[in-house]
Amino acid sequence: MTRSLALLALLVLSSSVDAQHTVISPAEAAALIADAQGDARPIVIDTRGGYKDYFRAHLPTAHHLNFDTLRGTADGVPVQYLPDELTELLLERAGVTAGRTHLIYATGAELPNDEILSTSMVAYVLEKFGIDDVRVVDGGLAAWQRQGLPTTQVYHGNPPGELSPERRPEIGIAIDELMALKDQPNVVLVDARPKNEYLGQDDIWLRKGHIPGAISFHWAKLMASDNTHQFRSVDECRRLLEAAGLTKEKRILVYCGTSREGSLLRFYLKHVAGYDDVRLYEGSWKEYVSLDLPAETTESVAK
Which domains does the chain have, with CATH numbers? Predict the structure, then answer.
């Protein structure tokens, strides 16, 4: 009985521990790939949407998982996350395995390159499906090549993976809960899209503007100007975040257009800056505009 209780306590404790997702340098990633074999080998995933980019060059042992295969139309709304059972099949087909190290990357350049968003979106999905060890290669393929590290055109397919039963749905938030929480004094709702979309000065969306009360913080502010896959220094990012009112004591709800930009901001706040309470509205603006809910085009500031 004592042993059973101890095991139960261990399981409860382990399920409550946050995923430890990190950013590592290309050199650190190369060392992991070169030194490990068998079950110790990191699972390397290229998240880029363009298959021809993978054909041209990719990291050794990288399996191509097009990030957009994890989304589709649901209830008439495009690019919604797939049902869990389909996502599980796709992740396991890509070799995703509980208890293993996962290296993920895309590439970077100056804006409008936004390939990092494919990587942060996949990181979010991996976290939601119980994967604890996810390491984003800082600078992506561009930084890897700049440092003279080897690439390949040889295809690599991971053997089938195995997920654990653990899921973390609480890292996301649905529209009903978001609407109930967003105006509370300790909550900041933040729109990670470009400022012109936030203000409704675009031709993209079914309706213009943003969720009432949301502040604007474009995800690209956190990234190097010449490589949108590489984060600015911790000090630079902290100053930018605090100036926008995004401070650690706040509960932060993030959204964007389709959830990719929001996933990047959430990844940085939660896993790099160490914020405790950051959740992603998965439906984001493309779902919100399909609902009978208000929108505004005037700028808000953090409470």
Answer: 18-146 (3.40.250.10), 169-288 (3.40.250.10)
